Amino acid sequence: MIEQERYTCAIGALQSVVAIPKALPILHSGPGCGMMVRGFFERSTGYAGGSTSPCTNFSESEVVFGGIDKLRKIITNSYKILNSDLQVILTGCTAGIVGDDIDSLANEFREIGRPIVTVETAGFKNNNFVAHGDVVNAIIDQYTNKFIDENPVRSEKRTVNLFASIPYQDQFWKGNLRTYKHLLEQLGFKVHILFGPESAGVTEWQQIPRANFNVLVSPWYGQSIVEHLKNIYGQPFFKFPHIPIGANETEKFLYTLLSFAEENDTPLDYKKAKLFIKHESAAYYEELDNLATFLLEFRYGLPNYVHIIHDAGYVVGLAKFLLHETGIVPKEQFIVDNTPEKFQQDIRTDLKGISTKKNVPLLFEPDAGKVQNIIRDITYDGRGLLIGSGWDKELSKEKHFDFLSASVPSPYRLVLCTGYAGFHGGLRVMEDIFNTVLASYR
């Protein structure tokens, strides 16, 4: 039994559908599945999420006789009520066990011109980190491919498809995607962002084949997407293995991306792009200069070490940022996204590169309850900082740590468009940490 699981089962990937403008998830599942997802992510309804998502409400009758007729009725009625551009059927555990032929049903609607996609997301198969890739690949195979004649493969040399934060699983996903898009556009790229308010919706999904290459910002989740696109369209992919936070990692991200683009014959103004990076970096360090007086004045009252409980991309990204740009030393770090074993060594190597002198202990543990017990038994001199989810707030009080809520579930923090990626993201992390510290003074 896992206590405090920081992700959902596979059907939680319905949030990836919700994040596509005017896309509609249809749940072929029991009524509790949608309620579970809505309760875990909170404030994540989008255009057709939360209580709006149609559901067949699988009951004993459907278990015995199948639920295809009910699903057909739900789909038909959803077109009457919601003006959606794309429908995606996601199956729950009951539908997965019964074995309803949802593909044949979907073909009935495709024949009359309805864009509809099917994805198997039974909870016993995987979690929503993995299922996010399954949903994206299903849309590409069953929807995007229908527009391949109008969108020649790799026909736009400056265009890239971006795959980064998982919508809603990363509570900063909107801000992060907006940041990535801005940075890449300033380098000279046209960016398919695909999710969120910066996306053009299904029109952008139709144009995925046009991109010269794909950009993946992730240690492992989303890897199946870029590998699939490489197989079917021959698009190479650039991978940056963690969230680039602050100047050091954002510069590294952008410069290595430019090198990759040059290797792949992308016609950019490379001189202008590098001048942009230098300008953004200078503006960032100007703010750090302004911060110096504060850091000097409060040097004995600021946290000097940190434990992070998060997914792999944030653990590595935050640890590198905090050590090199705030002086807060990463102690034991905990990755709770159930990282597949085949990716774990690369993540360890990435974190090991944080310093030639310091080894940062790292534990892959999806049971966050066990993680909390480990932290309870750890003692260091100085003032500690704990970065985790809202479930870690009481632990931070128990340990007398400063606390920053930075992952889901997060009932004690409202996030609308805040992002932690990039130059501005690094400054925002500093604001959040040091404002938390200052709030403790009376």
* CA gyration radius, whole angstroms: 23 Å
Name the poorly predicted regions. none
The number of helical elements comes to: 17
Q: Please state roughly what percent of the residues sit in beta strands, choosing from under 5%, 5-15%, 15-25%, 25-35%, 35-45% or over 45%.
A: 15-25%
Please tally the β strands and state the result. Answer: 12
Computed structural class: alpha/beta
Sketch the major β-sheet. 5 strands, parallel
* Lateral strand order in the biggest sheet: 10-9-8-11-12
The secondary-structure element order is: HEHHHEHHEHEHEHEHEHHEHEHEHEHEH
Morphology call: globular
Distance between the termini: 42 Å
Helix content: 40-55%
* Nearest-integer average pLDDT: 94
Descriptive account of the structure:
46% of the residues lie in helices and 15% in strands. The protein is of the alpha/beta class. The chain has a five-stranded parallel β-sheet with strand order 10-9-8-11-12, sandwiched between helices. The protein has a four-stranded parallel β-sheet with strand order 5-4-6-7, with helices on both faces. Strand 11, helix 16 and strand 12 form a beta-alpha-beta unit. It is globular, with a radius of gyration of 23 Å. The model has no long low-confidence stretch (mean pLDDT 94).
